[in-house]
Amino acid sequence: MFDLTHLSNSQLKIGRWILHNESSVMIATEKDIAGTVGVSVASVSRFWQAIGVQNLKAYKQLLKEKRDITPAKKILNTLIDIEYQDVQSHHLNQSIHQLQTTLDNFKQDQFEQAISAILKTNRLFIYAPGPSLSLGELLNYRLHRYGLDVHLIKWMGSEILEELVHIDESSTVLLLSFGRLLKEGEVILKHANEIRCKTIVISDQLVMDTPCVFDIFLYADRGEKDEFHSMIAPLFLLENLIVEIGKEKNILVHMELLDKLRKTYKEDLPR
Predict the structure, then answer these.
(1) CA 136 to chain centre
(2) In the sheet that 150-153 helps form, which strands lie side by side, from edge to edge?
(3) Side-chain-facing half-sphere of 100: CA atoms under 13 Å
(4) Quick one: angle between helices 108-120 and 232-246, nearest 10?
(5) Which of 28, 35, 43, 248 could bridge to 39 as Cys pair (CB 3.0-4.6 Å)?
(6) CA dihedral (44, 50, 55, 59) positive or negative
(7) Cβ proximity of 114 and 216 under 8 Å
């Protein structure tokens, strides 16, 4: 919700606590925040201007507005934006902007680490809730075709614990987290940290609102929080990931085997 990079050490402590405790902030005073974080009340008072907000009351109002945004309001805001232009031009312009923002925040080292982690893992677990499920399905399908051991987690609630028992230190976990990290995602990351397996997070949030630690982070823009969210940039990022993984020689051998099987059984299973 705000940039942490330019803050002092005490302001950074305040900022991190606020990001991870939004519900508590809504009922807290500056004295409460100061006591919890371990800084002075004056430091908390100065913090708001450092992030471009007038005071605590104004920040609480921003949080309220953030929580009040519904899918219907996102669609309405998008329709208002395109009132004086055709849908295709608007969507194309938005897509170009989101792709450019994704490229502007692209980290080559993180991208290469993600490729390495996926290639070296014994099994890749993908968690793609809600609207990101289609992206998870695509990634699962493509990487499985390469011969990688991939599993798409589809359980929700306490049933997700059935999946955790199969994740061990030789595994890698990849989470798609758009908008906010769900409780199930937090539990997966906590478990991954406990057993010390690699974690990759792909998100449209440059600053993740979670206390959970992860190893690799990739950013994909989906537009402003109050408008219709597109999956074009996340798809672009994932397809690049798939292509780079596909360049590995041992993976191409598996693809050649698949081609032979198609030729062998083309009469039985025509395409």
Answers:
(1) 12
(2) 150-153, 123-127, 171-177, 198-203, 216-219
(3) 6
(4) 60
(5) 43
(6) negative
(7) yes
Percent of the chain with pLDDT over 70: 87
Q: What is the pLDDT of residues 240-253, one digit of tens each?
A: 999 999 888 677 77
Given the candidates 3.40.50.10490, 2.60.120.460, 3.90.640.10, 3.10.580.10, the CATH classification of the domain at 99-262 is 3.40.50.10490
Please name the CATH architecture into which domain 9-67 falls: Orthogonal Bundle (1.10)
CA 251 to chain centre: 27
Q: What are phi and psi of 93, to 5 degrees?
A: -65, -45
Assign 13 to helix, strand or coil. Answer: helix
pLDDT digits (tens, 9 = 90+) for 105-122: 899 999 999 999 999 999
Higher pLDDT, 195 or 226: 195
| Straight-line distance from the first to the last Cα atom of the chain, in angstroms, rounded to the nearest whole number | 49
Rounded Cα distance, 157 and 236, in Å: 30
Nearest Cα to Cα of residue 205 among 188, 193, 218 = 218
C-beta of residue 235 within 8 angstroms of C-beta of residue 135: yes
* Confidence tier at 256 by pLDDT (50, 70, 90): confident
Closest alpha carbon to 227 in 115, 63, 90 = 90
Beta strands in 85-160, from DSSP E residues, in sequence order:
123-127, 150-153
Q: Which of 219, 218, 217, 211 is nearest to 193 (CA)?
A: 211
Is residue 52 left, alpha or beta, with left meaning phi > 0 and alpha meaning psi from -120 to 50? left
